[in-house]
Amino acid sequence: MESDTRSTWGWLRRHMIFEVECPEPDITGNARGKFIPVNQFLCGGEPRLPGRVS
User: Are 25 and 44 in contact (CB under 8 A)?
Assistant: First the structure.
């Protein structure tokens, strides 16, 4: 698994990709989400998305 992460990191660097888009549909189907830095994405960081609207 660690070699997969290293190869993915290498591919992202070679292609100069610094952020990963993580779309998440809302209740009506509209795309929401966040852009996450590559290092946070590969380290398993979890984006903080709202769970509900008050």
Answer: no
pLDDT reported for residue 33: 80
Helix or strand holding residue 36 (H, E): strand 31-37
Whether 34 contacts 40, CB under 8 Å: no
Output the average pLDDT for the chain: 79
pLDDT at residue 7 greater than cutoff 80: yes
Q: Which residues of 3-22 are buried (b: 16+ CB within 10 A; e: fewer)?
A: eeeeeeeeebeeeeeeeeee
